[in-house]
Amino acid sequence: MCGIVGYVGKRKVVPVLIEGLRRLEYRGYDSAGVAYLQDGELHRHRCEGKLINLEEIMEEVSADSRIGLGHTRWATHGAPSQRNAHPHCDCTGKLVVVHNGIIENYHSLREELQEKGHTFISETDTEVMAHLIEEHLENDLVEAVRMAITLVDGSFALGVMWSEQPDQLVAVRNQSPLVLGVLEDSGTFLASDIPALLPFTNSVVFLDDQEMAVLKKGSWQVMQAESGELVEKTPQVIDWNVGMAEKAGYRHFMLKEIFEQPQAVLNTFRGRFDPETGEVLLPEINLSKKELAQIKRISLVACGTSWHAAMVAKYWLEKWARIPVDVDIASEFRYRSLILNPNVLVVPISQSGETADTLAGMRLAKSMQAKIITICNVVGSTMTREADGTIYTHAGPEIGVASTKAFTAQMVALFLLTLFMAQAKKTISGEESRSLLSVLLELPVLIEKNLLRIQDEMMPISEEFSRSRDFLYLGRGINYPIALEGALKLKEISYIHAEGYASGELKHGPIALIDRDMPVLALAPRDSVYPKVLSNVEEVKARHGRMIVIGTEGDDELQRISDYVITLPEIHEDLNPILYTIPLQILAYQIANIRGCDVDQPRNLAKSVTVE
Ligand code: F6R
């Protein structure tokens, strides 16, 4: 989704804006622009397409300015074009606005403003904001922004600059993230996401909904948008460094992140259990024993890949903690007749902590008095600030749009939550806990040991099937969500149509698709449903489907029934989903690469989906 960067300080602003926007490229965008003030005049440069186009334009411009705003736009209202790219101006050309989110009532506002004589240049909802602020502007930008936003419905993160008050930027947030980066006396930064700030500072201030900020060279202030009352905020230090958000020699962020999974898994469970006793320690849950004992149902809410992690967790929680679990796609959850109360634990799962649907679902659940524990990767993100407690996945920044290490880390966090709940409810023995945790402990090394081998063995498979039109992924039981995840990874980065199925469902429809051209990937570890999966594989083989099987080391049967086999070490079947995800990520990555796709920034997708 769109990215915002702003800066006022001692440095030249254009390189700061470009560097910040580069760090936000992963969010997905289709045009970019910057505006800055120099000698009392506002300058603006915008272009369609990638940031490199903007950089080329900026190389021709010698700008000495120290204050400005930058933006990468992901088109919602109006096609990706220079005209629709941000920043947008008012009629005087003295005021600019960058905006993330959607102004829902932009149409009626636009008509009203046009009647008052305002001229619109673009098709965007954002331009309304520029004219609306202009309409209320006398001599104080902060006042004008405050008045303008009272008339607006929808979500917004705004950065505003006016050449008549050339020493300040004004920012305001409502349902779309914004964060300040602060450097004592040398400058203040504005961004929609932390990676944009990392090259400059680790000291950040998160804005909450309906908060405004005034940014100056050596100072910043936060206030309530409605009342104007000052809000006390203390900068937080983020323990991510700039190297964590770089490729470190890998061809793509996605590949780097696949290879970071041993560390992500380890960091997510490290220090969270006692290996001697098997006791899981999650003080961050912030629920007393009494509150835990009262939980009668768990509701897992998420989107996309995070939803697949939730589906895996349902198997674990019901098996070990003996609690009924609902799993909902967040965009569905928020529109059904929910039955929630203080005895329901709602767990929103989100890498970014900003996904609009998950956040809305979480707020709805909170309003119905449910307890909220989020599983999240981004420190200080909105969900973490609004939940009763957060179990952080410590996967480090995930830049590739396709989620990889955050997914495996989410599963680890959910597995710990499972054991924690089971121990609180006394539905698991000490011996069982210790034994499961000993498998978890081994996982980072197991993944590490197998990554390169899987990469090599997968390459001929990727080459053979890179031109396929469709793909089926089959899994059963706890590996069914992994089949869904494999299919999602393939379709989002390679644009091959792929479907995941519970393998028992094959004969209820999808088997009609099987012919000599249809690649079918089956997850067939030697687990409790292994014989059933084998029968499903035989059904495909009998219809001449091209079979790729991921199964257990030493299982000779697999060679007989499949065209290609990749094996993985045998571990406790409950933890197979974490291990079996890895080859599917590698397959998708390799196929996308062979097809020449933009792996890290697939078309039409955004890393952080902050609109409904
Ligand atoms: C797929 C992918 C998306 C996200 C989804 C939710 O690879 O990354 O499906 O999982 O948009 O995002 P978060 O987890 O940030 O809420």
Describe, in plain words, how this protein is organized in 3D.
The chain is α/β, with parallel strands linked by helices and 612 residues long. It starts with a strand and ends in an 18-residue tail after the last helix. The protein is built from 18 helices and 24 strands. The relative contact order is 0.09. It folds into 2 domains: 2-240, Aminohydrolase, N-terminal nucleophile (Ntn) domain (Glutamine Phosphoribosylpyrophosphate, subunit 1, domain 1), CATH 3.60.20.10; 253-594, 3-Layer(aba) Sandwich (Rossmann fold). The chain has an 8-stranded antiparallel sheet with strand order 3-2-4-1-10-9-11-14, covered by helices on one side. Strands 5-6-7-8-12-13 form a 6-stranded antiparallel sheet. The structure holds fructose -6-phosphate. Fructose -6-phosphate binds at residues 303-306, 350-352, 355, 358, 402-403, 488, 492, 608-609. Fructose -6-phosphate (F6R) binds at residues 303-306, 350-352, 355, 358, 402-403, 488, 492, 608-609.
Give a short summary of the structure.
With 612 residues, the chain is an alpha/beta fold. The protein has 18 helices and 24 strands.
